[in-house]
Specification:
The complex is a heterodimer of chains A (172) and B (490).
Chain A: E1 2-4, E2 11-13, E3 37-38, E4 66-70, E5 76-79, E6 84-88, E7 100-101, E8 115-122, E9 125-130, E10 137-139, E11 142-143, E12 149-151, E13 157-160, E14 163-169
Chain B: H1 9-13, H2 21-35, H3 45-59, H4 62-69, E1 82-88, E2 92-94, E3 100-110, E4 121-129, H5 137-151, E5 158-164, E6 168-175, H6 180-188, H7 198-211, E7 217-225, H8 233-245, E8 249-255, H9 261-269, E9 275-278, H10 283-296, E10 298-309, E11 313-322, E12 326-327, E13 334-340, E14 345-353, E15 363-373, E16 381-393, H11 403-426, H12 430-446, H13 450-464, H14 471-484
Parallel strand pairs in B: 2-16, 4-5, 4-7, 7-8, 8-9
Antiparallel strand pairs in B: 1-3, 3-14, 5-6, 10-13, 10-15, 11-12, 11-14, 15-16
Helix pairs in contact in B: 2-3, 5-6, 5-10, 7-8, 8-9, 11-12, 11-14, 12-13, 13-14
The chains are: A mainly beta (172), B alpha/beta (490).
Chain lengths: 172, 490
Amino acid sequence: MTVQCPNCTHENFDGALFCAECGTKLVNEDGLSTAAIRATDSGANGDSAGPAPAPAAPVQTSEARVSLHVVRTGQILPLVGRDEFTIGRVSEGQSILPDIDLTPFDAYSQGVSRLHATLRVSGERIILVDLGSSNGTRLNNQKVQSHREYDLHHGDIVSLGRFKLQALLRQD
Amino acid sequence: MATGYLDNFYARLGLRKKATAEEIRIAYHAAARHLHPDVSPDPDATELFLQVQEAYETLSNPQKRLAYDQLLPDDIDPPADVMVNAIYSRSVLPSMNSPQLVYVLLDLLSRPTAEDRQKPALNVCLVLDTSTSMAGPRLDMVKAAATMLIRSLKQEDYLAVVTFHDKAEAIIPAERGIDLGRIEARISQIATGGGTEILHGLKAGLNEISRNLGPSYVNHLLLVTDGKTYGDEAACLELADMAAGRGITISGLGIGSDWNDEFVDQMCRKTGGTSAYASHPEDIKKLLEKQFQNLTRTYANNVLLDYKPGSQAELRYAFRLSPDPAALDITAPVALGNIPLGPSLSVLMEFLVREAPENSRPLTLAEGDLKLKIPTRKIPDTTARFDLTRMVAHDPEPEPPPQVLVKAMSRLSLYRMQEKAHQDLQAGNHEKATQRLGQLAHQLLSAGRPDLAHTVRLQLKELGKGESISEDGKKQIKYATRSLVMPEVD
């Protein structure tokens, strides 16, 4: 597979970060190639052109109104029992613990803060707020501002640092 | 999970495998002092800090540590007191039967004990070009700079001064506890005459350093020149190889447009040193002072990566990002230079993996020994086994390459483009070079450097008229794009 430079059409080796000919950046902030990926290799995933689409949302089965899909591992975390959830990771000597602890998913190396963000269920709305995390939060790849409310929809991808969660809302 | 020879939690903290809980705690705090996002002015430190924190969270917990230890090879022995972190552009390589690039940022940070805080003793020789072209402000500035450097020496430092044109003379033979008055008088008497024959100067300089050569010194030759040397280049490179083998580093300072930067670079690079460019005589003092400071702030030197590439891999390019940006010689062993006290020695490597078949065992990019010398130690020489490996999987989850790598590469890509443009020119490919310089001008503009973009455009004009580009402009662009790699310096 090669990566074609959008600027000068040079075919770069797969994995190149910048075009070897003209120096144009070949990866966007999220690391997916911004250039068209050409498959010359039958073993590879041949039919994906352009940035990879968001993974298809698994079907929601649990009772919970909202669940979080850990994109990396495929695990689903149902949010039940209250209206507001803090998301983060637990480390030694921490006094305030998050409601959803992502430590088992290698959260620290992915840049998740101890108290990274909250999710709140308010009537029909599901609201995401970044709690001033060190590495920031992205909603569908757009950086969100800290301490501001953003509405979540079914299938939205929330990145805490580099840790990706997909919002699954029960549709009824 | 990092369980390689030098890619493991112990190496990240600069600890041996048998470290006590207290040593682990102290090492972590030392690392945090350098890398914690709250204290480090370097925004790129965050990713390194996360690596160190991940290591600490496991090693500080006895159960986790025990479980982790069982995953490690039996014979690992990370070099104590150097923290080694490797950051890869891909955490898992996608399996494919066509080539792919993998970038590795290797970061070596000192973790000095109290007694290492003292500066190492120097064994330095200044080798000064006194050919006719040096007469006037150039020589005056070199004399002033040399005098200033000599005043800053410590009692235990050895210093020698060699002057050369078509022959060489050790006007100050290697000595320590020097008599400043006498030496300053000797320096003020330096006169010019003859052409530039670097081999003579190099030979005499290495000879002076050899008198007191030892692993507990920073052994260094500093060459100052303004001219091209003819016919003796191959012999000079051979001497540089020999110097590298004996633990002597060479750095160069070129003045004006006539010296051969590629040759001086090549010579220095063999030893882990680098060249600097003074376009005006006024720059001489500042640049010499900086090179000298790098020596006095050495924690470990003669850092060598004695590597063998994996069966599917090839090291295509290596560049030292800090402390002193420079392209490195990729033939093994790669001389990486010095690990300073404080900031890290940071090296970016580009590997080409020809084919990555799916496998249950990791794919090796390179393996071998990391060798280094800590002059202030009783036993300065250290060797540690290292390997750079990645797992290969079918169609792994796409992931962003670490920001620290993307940033470093974006700064480096400008330097590489001018490098390639000059390679094109040397190969006689004017059209390609013109095209590339045009792209470079464009990239420099978007990087907020209209001044440099302008210099490149002037070169393009000359090329368009069928003339060769000016030596001055070429050096300006080379050294300016190189300094962009580490913007906080300068």
